[in-house]
Amino acid sequence: MTQPRDRADAPPFCVAALYHFCRFDDCAGMRDALDRVCRQQHVRGTLLLAREGINGTIAGARTGIDAVLDHIRAMPGCAALEVKFSTAEALPFHRMKVRIKREIVTMGQPDIDPRLSAGTYVDPADWNALISDPGTIVIDTRNDYEVAVGSFAGAIDPHTRSFSEFPAWFRAERERLLGSGQEGTPPKVAMFCTGGIRCEKSTAFLRSEGVDQVYHLKGGVLKYLETVPPEHSLWQGECFVFDARVAVGHGLAPGTHTLCHACRMPVSPADLGSPLYEPGVSCPACHATRSDEQRDGYRERHRQEQLATTQGRAHVGAVIPEPPR
User: Fold this and answer.
1) Is 193 a catalytic residue?
2) How far apart are CA 234 and CA 138, in angstroms?
3) Given the DSSP bridges, would you call strands 82-88 and 13-21 parallel, antiparallel or unpaired?
4) For the whole model, what pTM was predicted?
5) Which candidate in 193, 239, 260, 286 is catalytic?
6) Is residue 250, in this structure, part of any structural domain at all?
7) Are residues 148 and 181 in the same domain?
8) Structural domain harbouring 200
9) In a domain, 39, yes or no
């Protein structure tokens, strides 16, 4: 996969979203080496390592990103790493974190191995035909606040707050979902997520539950928005991303949502006009759950962040979205 071409008017920073399932036996040693090369190349973002592989998003100058990706591809089992690229006018991350986790995306199903049992990949160019088929059930595997920003027309929203809730949701809804096939024919199940990683696990999970016709969008919504022309798109709204851009639209252009610094939830343009929205302090989603004392603390933090911005420095308490859970 190629990176954005150099142009005189191109945004100066490259953003690389990546994941790869493989087997790591020395996460601690790999973390230290990876963290070192990221810092040497002035790259920022978050990378998660687990025995099952690597996941994360990083940003920096193109030369720095190239160096980090070369390092990752030299790690055991990572030669075939695929990356989704976009650009940004400013660095969307304030620091670099390389962390060791039990899972690179938490589902809580330790026996699931996407390398062996993931569903059938569907290229973005073929996705519209699949989800437009009346015999296909389309499931959005992302969290509820992500779905609220945008989704495919007609997709089922499980209303989960974290990905670890997905298995219980499916088991509770299985009979209703799979009993909707025409004339006794089991329906096809098509699932999608932001970049593809959650669907690697969710499709493998459904197959472990005995569902055979399981498909997922290759490269996730980001690849779809990057490659499918808006006039042919079935996507509605924007796509929430886990960095300071908050959301992107077709062509991966910056979206219109901002982030509430109190609850880390996306704030729509309509919500900006709400009397419950105060920059850096509250939004309609969290105003009722915060005390006056908490909001006073948020106001002070916001004041410090604004001061840091005017002085051209990053504030240590700056808030960006958390990685998917």
Assistant:
1) yes
2) 12
3) antiparallel
4) 0.85
5) 193
6) no
7) yes
8) 114-237
9) yes
